[in-house]
Design goal:
This protein has a single domain, classed as Dbl Homology Domain, Chain A. By secondary structure, the protein is mostly helical. The chain contains 9 helices and no strands. Pfam families: RhoGEF (PF00621).
Amino acid sequence: MEIVDTEISYIEDLNLMIEVFMKPLVSKFSLTAKESLDIFSNIDGIVAVNSNIATELSVSLQTLPKHQIPIGQIYFKWAPFLKLYTTYCQNHTNALITLGKIEKKHKDLSVFLREAAESQSSCRGLYFKDFLIKPVQRIMKYPLLFNTVLQYTSPQSGEYRSLEDCLRLFSNIVTDINEIHDRSLRFQELIDANDRITDY
C-alpha cells in the first residue's frame, strides 16, 4: 500500500537530511540558533511525529496484512501534531533565503553541501534542497493518498470513518497552507512595490 511504504521511506529521508546535512551544517559553519531555526524550522517536531506514525505502521505490518492496517486510526491519533506542517511550509521560502545569505558569507558552503550529497549513495542523487522541501511535498500529497485508500475501502469497514476524518483533516491543513502562502506572496509583492517607489 503506497501510503504505508512511502511513510516509512519518508521518515528515512528526513533522518538522512538531519545526519548528512543539518548536524554537519550547524557545527561546521557555526550557525547561530536563529539561522538554524530559519533554515530547519520545526523539523525536529515533524520527525518526532512522523517517526511515531512510521513505527506504528511498521509494527502493524509485522502482524497484519497491509489491507488490514488501521491507517486512519494511526494517523488520526497524531492529528493534533500534524499542524506542525503549517509552520514548516510557511517558513520554507524564508529557509531558502536564509540559506542563500549564509552561502554568500561562507563561500565553501555550496561545495560542502554538494559533496555531502554526492558522497552518500543513500542520497540517491538528491541534494540538500531536495530534502528540505520533502515535508512540503509530503503534506500536500496526503489528501491524494488517503483518497486512494478510501476508494479501496468498504464503506461498511470500521476503518472507513477514520480514513474520511483523515482526508478531511489533511485537506483542511493543505487549504490553510495554500491560503497562508497566497497571503505571503501578496505581502511580498507589496514590499517589492514599495521598494521600487522612489523617495521624493
